[in-house]
């Protein structure tokens, strides 16, 4: 009990009991009067001790249920696999039944939480999710893997699951519609071309789905990183928003006449059939680093560095969807900040850390990379603070630089994840901060000079 904060649980128990007692002896008119004064209490109830019906309670009692659930989940070794709402529902269903038979408040708490955990775990299972997705125009190879994420062309996927689909139609609980649903899935998938598959460990259904979606999106962003933003704008999960629709029809009237404009384009990055072998041969180490990162995503227990690389890849991916150069730069800068900032944002330190991630090891190149980072950061400030419109042509010359810097930094971020999380270590914020500080130390004198020069430039720009 000590690890599960019993005193706070006891406070919540008292809130629940008080919330039930508030309605215990009320007549219907009194309940109606209560709801008129306390609208927040509506739809708040717990299961009766005998399991037959519900007992009304206050909103505060329901909040205490969720408070108890949230605190309990935080103590579980596999708490990330649970939904707090599932545990709260388990408490709601079992509290009064347990309270009727257990002799002490402490025993009520222990037994209720055990019952709630079992209730939540009843929905936990290992699952494999298959997501239609937009990837590349080529259908070669028909299937490949990046760590735990498998990609197949739609025909190859349907072939690989032919027996499972047959069983679903013949033996499923919805046989009347099962065949139609399979055909609908196949028709839906044909518009996108690929299916990504990810297996997750036992967890709540929505938790598993979220992990699988994040792993797939991250895998797509890594492939996008290999190709470059200009070639991979529309790569995505099928159910996420497209930057530009593959098909659309509009009616246009001009000069007294009506016309219909129709556009249809091939989904995915336009690539040659050797795209996969080219990437694997040129960047096999980074493919392995990406696979290692995806394993952490699927497990749902991201280290500090893994979380930062995943988020940076997400910002990079979002930048590719933008049509305005200024917005692209702002999102590239956000990716760089996520990789490097470990406290308050200090522009000189940000530029120095970006330089550490992008320079070639020479002092001269470190200085060049420092000023490139400053240019990207300054452009981002002009967008965010409204100095220039995001669509201003001024940014056109900077977006390529921002893309180049960000792309290199994320590749180095994958390397840094491998380094900081080697041998099963789970990196922390302190580990990342210490790494940057140790790497910057040999450049301390140069950093001081660059910091002074940067401040002078900032004064001139005001």
Keywords:
462 residues; alpha+beta; five-stranded antiparallel β-sheet; two-stranded antiparallel ribbon; 9 strands
Summarize it.
With 462 residues, this protein is of the alpha+beta class.
Mean pLDDT: 93
Terminal CA distance reads: 59 Å
Going by helix content, strand content and strand pairing, the class is alpha+beta
Oligomeric state of this protein: single chain
Percent of residues in helices: 55-70%
Give me the side-by-side strand order of the main sheet: 4-5-6-3-7
Q: Write the element-wise H/E pattern from the N-terminal end onward.
A: HHEEHHHEEEHHHEHEEEHHHHHHHHH
Query: What is the strand content?
Result: 5-15%
Radius of gyration, Cα only, in angstroms?
Answer: 28 Å
Helix segment count?
18
Tally of strands: 9
- Outline the biggest β-sheet: 5 strands, antiparallel
Query: What's the overall geometry?
Result: globular
- Spans of at least 5 consecutive residues whose pLDDT stays below 50 are none
Structural summary, described in words:
There is one protein chain. The strands form 3 sheets. This protein has a 5-stranded antiparallel sheet with strand order 4-5-6-3-7. Strands 1-2 form a two-stranded antiparallel sheet. It has a two-stranded antiparallel sheet with strand order 8-9. Among the domains are: 2-121, no CATH class; 124-300, no CATH class. A hairpin with a 2-residue loop joins strand 8 and strand 9. The chain contains 18 helices and 9 strands. The mean pLDDT is 93. It has 462 residues and is an alpha+beta fold.
